[in-house]
Amino acid sequence: MTTTTDTPHTLALLGRRLSDWADPKNTIVAVSLAIGCGLYGWPGLGWAVIAIVFAAVIPMIYIVYIEGNGNWADRHLTDRVRRITVLPVISGSVAVGLALQYATTAQRPLIAMTAAMWATITAVWPITVLAKYKISVHAAVTAGSFAMLAQAYNPWWLIGYAFVALLGWARVAVREHTVSQTITGAILGTIVAGGVYALLA
């Protein structure tokens, strides 16, 4: 039987699991495959893999094994100061992936998707440095992904914002962000990723 004392612990555990499951790298993998393979089948897989490697795999290797000395537990960059040096590296990696997609004549929606990823992570950096504000990258990436999927497929994907709200709760529950930081992240992801995708796709 769950007691009142156990409830906060249970909610925190659920929040942590949701945060880990829906972290930015996993979301990037999902949206890349959805747009790449979903729109173009197997031919789109190669371009999706480029986005995955340079926007998810390489950044995670850098965060954990190079900058983080193998500390997998802090892969979410809980310390805002660490983000100051990490975010430019991620931005540069995504830019290389974007250049490769362009060089290999990827379809416009794939290029637009990767450009949207680059624009989002690049926009987070000045907010982190100049405003000294720990905006939620989880919320930004997830909201931006649903904004792109709604354009790539149909507006029904906007229902996914219910999940963005749930993820925002999770980030607050594990005390990684405030409510305002998750809301700001979701707004930024929607405007930047959604806007860039709309312009380029």
Q: Which class best fits the helix and strand makeup? A: mainly alpha
Mean pLDDT across the residues is 89
Low-confidence stretches: none
What is the CA–CA distance across the termini? 52 Å
Helix content: over 70%
* Biggest sheet character: none
Output the number of helix runs.
8
Radius of gyration, in Å, reads 17 Å
| Total domain count | 1
The global form is globular
Strand content: under 5%
Report on the structure:
This protein has 201 residues and is an all-alpha fold. The protein has one domain (9-200). It has helices at residues 6-21, 24-40, 43-66, 80-103, 108-129, 137-152, 161-173, 179-200. Helix 2 packs antiparallel against helix 5 (108-129). The longest helix has 24 residues, at 43-66. The protein is globular. The model has no long low-confidence stretch (mean pLDDT 89). The chain crosses the membrane at residues 45-65, 86-104, 110-131, 152-170, 182-200. Keywords: Membrane, Transmembrane, Transmembrane helix. This is Phosphatase PAP2 family protein.
Which features would summarize this protein structure in a list?
201 residues; mainly alpha; membrane
Provide a concise account of the structure shown.
The chain is an all-alpha fold and 201 residues long.
